[in-house]
């Protein structure tokens, strides 16, 4: 197996890791000041760094086997902008070697945020940067906006930087206030990757953001977070009406979920998926099929797509102790493209 030293000839000078995340409720609300309920997953990405004394960055991914060389001042292609953006925004003015390893899948579980957070943590160690965990998350968001071209909200990086696997993390994405929330009693989380790849910058993600920003403008509010009466969005033309209806109803589902037992929380997840599929139009037929199979299982309280959509993973709330059996049954019916991830 390749290691940093076998690839680059010297040991790494800094190393850090970060977790992926799965979001149970609160999808596509974080760029409208809304509420979200993610949790960290056990899968992590690790970034090792070392100075190379040249005027280029040499970046290697163990999962793909790909090595990219990026001259200083350029952002590169492929996975390079995620790292190079972190380098440039952190003031790096020398060539670095980087090795990426880990097991966070690329569909809907914030592998990009985990890569950014791990890189920034490693840079913090290498250069003694004064970045707290919230600063680090916000810099990751800046990388997405300025180097990757995805106008994401703050949830993914905040979750990767601050969440744990034992609780959900309620984040008010406007104030960045946050607190840990226990999972509903008697339930556990199951995540399954649909096997459908996606590329956010090439999908409708930025279009959705533009649509809800226009909806907020037409309603005369700073963000749709400020709309609590669903009737208010009915004055909008389509598709703005449907997009705004999702955001407003999704915020209400998150807040309701804080007091819900497992059965009601599952119903909220089911409603969230329907809203994402029908009003926000960010699901995918294969993802819908996988969600339907999960929702039909007697031990499943609820299931939905998770992440930005257009493919990727689904999450289910399952009766405690039943996740493995549910996953086996559903994957057998769905086909071999699906992969169980959690627990």
Automatic annotation (TrEMBL):
Limits of the GHMP kinase N-terminal domain: 91-162
Residue ranges of domain Galactokinase N-terminal in the record: 3-48
UniProt xrefs under Pfam families: GalKase_gal_bdg (PF10509), GHMP_kinases_C (PF08544), GHMP_kinases_N (PF00288)
Gene3D superfamilies tied to this protein: 3.30.230.10, GHMP kinase, C-terminal domain
EC numbers on record: 2.7.1.6
Stored InterPro entries: Galactokinase, GalKase_N, GHMP_kinase_C_dom, GHMP_kinase_C_sf, GHMP_kinase_N_dom, GHMP_knse_ATP-bd_CS, Mevalonate/galactokinase, Ribosomal_Su5_D2-typ_SF
Keywords: ATP-binding, Carbohydrate metabolism, Galactose metabolism, Kinase, Nucleotide-binding, Transferase
Highest taxon, organism lineage: Bacteria
Name of protein: Galactokinase
């Amino acid at each position: 197996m390749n290691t940093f030293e076998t690839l680059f000839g010297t040991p790494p000078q800094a190393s850090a890791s970060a977790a992926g995340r799965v979001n149970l409720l609160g999808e596509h609300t974080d760029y409208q000041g809304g509420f979200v309920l993610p949790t960290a997953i056990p899968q992590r990405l690790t970034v090792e760094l070392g100075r190379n004394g040249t005027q280029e960055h040499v970046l290697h991914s163990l999962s793909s086997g790909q090595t990219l060389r990026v001259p200083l001042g350029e952002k590169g292609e492929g996975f390079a902008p995620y790292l190079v953006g972190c380098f440039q925004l952190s003031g790096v003015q020398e060539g670095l070697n980087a090795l990426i390893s880990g097991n966070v899948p690329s569909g809907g579980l914030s592998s990009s945020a985990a890569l950014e957070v791990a890189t920034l943590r490693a840079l913090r160690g290498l250069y003694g940067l004064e970045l707290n965990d919230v600063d680090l998350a916000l810099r990751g968001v800046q990388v997405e906006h300025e180097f990757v071209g995805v106008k994401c909200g703050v949830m993914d990086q905040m979750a990767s930087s601050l969440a744990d696997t034992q609780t959900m993390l309620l984040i008010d994405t406007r104030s960045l206030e946050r607190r840990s929330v226990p999972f509903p009693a008697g339930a556990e989380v199951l995540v399954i990757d649909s096997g459908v790849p996606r590329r956010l910058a090439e999908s409708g993600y930025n279009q959705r953001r533009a649509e809800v920003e226009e909806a907020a403008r037409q309603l005369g509010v700073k963000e749709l977070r400020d709309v609590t009466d669903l009737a208010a969005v009915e004055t909008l033309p389509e598709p703005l009406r449907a997009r705004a209806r999702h955001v407003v109803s999704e915020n209400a589902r998150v807040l309701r979920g804080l007091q819900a037992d497992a059965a009601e929380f599952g119903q909220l997840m089911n409603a969230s998926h329907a809203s994402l599929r029908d009003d926000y139009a960010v699901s995918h037929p294969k993802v819908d099929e996988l969600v339907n199979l999960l929702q039909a299982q007697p031990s499943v309280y609820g299931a939905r797509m998770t992440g930005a959509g257009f493919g990727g993973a689904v999450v289910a709330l399952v009766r405690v102790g039943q996740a493995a059996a549910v996953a086996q049954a559903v994957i057998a019916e769905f086909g071999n493209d699906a992969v169980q991830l959690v627990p």
